């Protein structure tokens, strides 16, 4: 009968290490399955919902955007959109003139352009 010292410093006989242990599938399982696991999962979800609700409630309580009211002046006179000393730009074309297009950096027809496969199509028809 041979003996040796294991990693904890205990003396162990070789017959004990070579012994075959027979256990059923239920005995060999680390822990029970079923309802205890379900209770832990449902409890965790319930606590997460409570934390979410508390954060929503606290977030709405400290939100100052909802309390800000925007009131428009209700005077009888209407104010102009631009001051009197600032000129207004009118971009409409005079009658009879064609509209001039802005220059682009891409060919409007990518099939014939030199951009290759990755050329982006132009927005103008």
UniProtKB/TrEMBL annotation:
Source superkingdom: Bacteria
Biased composition (Low complexity): 68-83
Chain ranges passing through the membrane: 37-55
UniProt keyword list: Membrane, Transmembrane, Transmembrane helix
Keyword Transmembrane helix listed: yes
Compositionally biased region (Polar residues): 84-102
Region (Disordered): 68-125
Protein name: Uncharacterized protein
Organism of origin: Pararhizobium antarcticum
């Amino acid at each position: 009968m041979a003996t040796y010292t294991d990693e904890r410093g205990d003396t162990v006989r070789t017959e004990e290490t070579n012994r075959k242990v027979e256990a059923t599938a239920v005995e060999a399982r680390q822990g029970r399955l079923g309802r205890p696991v379900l209770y832990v999962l449902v409890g965790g979800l319930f606590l997460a919902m409570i934390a979410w609700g508390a954060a929503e409630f606290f977030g709405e309580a400290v939100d100052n955007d909802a309390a800000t009211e925007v009131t428009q002046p209700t005077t009888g006179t209407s104010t102009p959109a631009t001051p009197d000393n600032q000129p207004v730009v009118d971009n409409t074309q005079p009658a009879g003139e064609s509209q001039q297009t802005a220059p682009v950096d891409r060919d409007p027809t990518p099939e014939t352009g030199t951009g290759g496969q990755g050329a982006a199509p132009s927005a103008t028809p």
